[in-house]
Structure formats: structure tokens, C-alpha cells
Write a structure and sequence with these properties.
binds phosphoric acid mono(formamide)ester, Rossmann fold, binds norvaline
């Protein structure tokens, strides 16, 4: 059977995504050490060309909890710093490892790594952060279930407020038609996803755009935001701060959302910029569960990609 990768949201069918999320629920409910030998003898490489806290630790710990050996490699300290081509790195890593999680800049680099003969997972690129959004969908469904509603994310209203040209917003855009929820993208002019990606999602009827943060939040079940300047955009930070003035997710914005609405942020957050401290730390915030769930969802994802079933 051909190997599977997870580079973008649509690399899974809806049925497969549900299967992975169900598996993640099971793993989360179990004692930590329950699957400590499931992937015994295997190794998974985590290759980071950008900084990371959550992704690195959740993959590294998750791989170890499944009994496999995590190999974490960053640019500095590996031959990537000397410019060894990704395609060479990919071929070599595949000789040692059973899967590769890769955090990089361009989709071209990601696709080069995906030439490896083992499953490759996008651990964030300039164009998407699918493991985060898959995990965020898990967090939303978990929050709904905790409130007694097991109907899932389909049909819900999810708002993304802030930099909608970011990798996060673009993965949400991809997820909306797949999972059947309505996505509202709210951003100042010039900070929407590329036009072709918007049109593709718009044609499905699952996305609306607005240039008003309060209008974006109106009636939302979920309010999402992310930093105004992503990794690699540090040089634009000042210009972006000016462009996003008035775009902070705060009580005024949240007041427009549904009374039961939850707030998500993939973290790290810049308090006082895209979100204020009160909202991030407030009762609607699910950001700490959101961070934890990366572990459970990525463990499920790795098992699925490696074709390993739970007994
Ligand atoms: N949310 C997320 O991916 O965080 P890190 O950059 O710390 O991995
Ligand atoms: N959009 C952010 C996400 C960080 C997890 C970035 O790319 O820096």
C-alpha cells in the first residue's frame, strides 16, 4: 500500500479524520503508560527549521509514550545549516526512521521532504498548520461534549479574527468544507488568504469574509485568533501592528459571539496584541486544553499513518 502523508487538511477524508479523532479520545482517556510498547523498535524524526515549544514537545513526548524513539533535529546542529538539500535529508532519514514530522517555511521544502519513502507530517509551514487545526477541531468537539452536546463541529460557526493570511487561518479555510462548518474570516484589507484558496472554499458555501472584527465574531460558536506577525515575518512586525490596530480579541469582540462561545489560540500569544490577557485567561478560553490536545491527536495521527490499530 502507498504511504500516506499529512501535509494539509485534505490529506484525510472526513471519515478518516473522524477515525483519528475518535482514536485520540481513546488515547486521552487511557493511562499514560498504556501504549508504551505499541511502536517499540520504531523511530520518528522531528525536523525543525523554525522555533517550536508545543509541537516539538508534544511530538517528542507522544512518540516516546507510544514506545518509539523520537529523533529531534533542528537546523542548527544538523547539516541543514550547511545547506544539505531537503531531498537528500529526506532519503537519509527514511533509512533510519519510520516517519518524519517536518516544520519548515515553504511548501516546496515540505513537498521535497514528502518524497521520503516514509510518512511525512507537516508540523507547520508558511502555508498551513494542519496538525494544529485537526487538534483544535478535537478541542472544540471536546468542549461541546463537555457542555452536553455531542453533535460535533459540523454546522457550527467558527470565526478567525486577525491575520487571515496566516498558516493557521489557511488550514481553517481548508477544514471548513471538509468538516462542514461555517468559517468567518475577519481581517483588515490585505490580510486574507490567497484569492484562489478563498474562492475554492467560497464556492462550497462554507466561508464568509468581513473586514470588521465584531461582525466576524457575531453569533460565533468558536473565536480563533493567531499572532499578527508569524515566524519569518519579524521584519514586518511594526507595519503589521499598525495594520491590525483595533483588531484585538477582547471582551467587546467576545460580547458579539454566542453566549457559549469558546476562544482558541494556538499559542504562543502576544498578549495585548491579537488577544488581551483577560480573554486569554478568561472562562471562555480553552487554550491550555488546546495545547494539551496536540499530544493526543498527534499520537492518533502517527498510529493512523503507520497503519497501527489499537487492540
Ligand atoms: N502552536 C504551536 O505550534 O506552537 P509551537 O510553535 O510552540 O510549536
Ligand atoms: N502563525 C504562527 C503560528 C505559530 C504556531 C507562526 O507561523 O508563527
Amino acid at each position: 500500500m502507498a504511504k500516506r502523508d499529512y501535509l494539509k487538511m485534505t490529506d484525510m477524508t472526513l471519515a478518516e479524520a473522524h477515525r483519528v479523532l475518535r482514536l485520540a479520545t481513546r488515547l486521552k482517556e487511557e493511562p499514560k503508560g498504556r501504549r508504551a510498547t505499541l511502536l517499540a523498535g520504531r523511530s520518528v524524526a522531528v525536523v525543525l527549521e523554525k522555533a517550536s515549544t508545543r509541537t516539538r514537545v508534544s511530538f517528542e513526548v507522544g512518540i516516546a509514550q507510544l514506545g518509539a524513539h523520537p529523533v529531534v533535529l533542528s537546523t542548527q546542529g544538523s547539516q541543514l545549516a550547511r545547506g544539505e538539500p531537503i531531498r537528500d535529508t529526506a532519503r537519509v532519514l527514511a533509512r533510519y526512521c519510520d516517519a518524519i514530522a517536518f516544520r519548515t517555511s515553504t511548501t516546496a521544502r515540505l513537498l521535497e521532504m514528502a518524497q521520503a519513502s516514509v510518512p511525512v507530517i507537516n508540523a507547520l509551514s508558511d502555508d498551513g498548520h494542519p496538525v494544529q487545526v485537526l487538534s483544535d477541531i478535537f478541542t472544540i468537539e471536546e468542549a461541546l461534549a463537555a457542555a452536553g452536546d455531542r453533535s460535533g463541529i459540523a454546522g457550527r460557526r467558527v470565526a478567525f479574527i486577525g491575520d487571515c493570511s496566516s498558516n493557521m487561518a489557511r488550514s481553517w479555510l481548508e477544514a471548513a468544507p471538509l468538516f462542514g462548518f461555517h468559517l468567518v474570516l475577519a481581517a483588515p484589507k490585505g490580510y486574507m488568504p490567497p484569492a484562489d484558496e478563498v474562492e475554492r472554499a467560497r464556492a462550497t458555501g462554507h466561508v464568509t469574509l468581513t473586514s470588521d472584527p465584531r461582525e466576524g465574531a457575531a453569533g460565533a460558536d468558536v473565536v480563533n485568533t493567531d499572532v499578527w506577525a508569524s515566524m519569518g515575518q519579524e521584519g514586518e512586525a511594526e507595519r503589521r501592528r499598525a495594520a491590525f490596530a483595533g483588531w484585538t480579541v477582547n471582551a467587546g469582540v467576545m460580547q458579539k459571539a454566542a453566549p457559549h462561545a469558546v476562544v482558541l489560540h494556538c499559542l504562543p500569544a502576544h498578549r495585548g496584541e491579537e488577544i488581551d490577557d483577560e480573554t486569554l485567561e478568561g472562562p471562555r478560553s480553552r487554550v491550555w486544553d488546546q495545547a494539551e490536545n496536540r499530544l493526543h491527536v498527534q499520537k492518533a495521527l502517527m498510529l493512523w499513518l503507520l497503519g497501527v490499530e489499537l487492540a
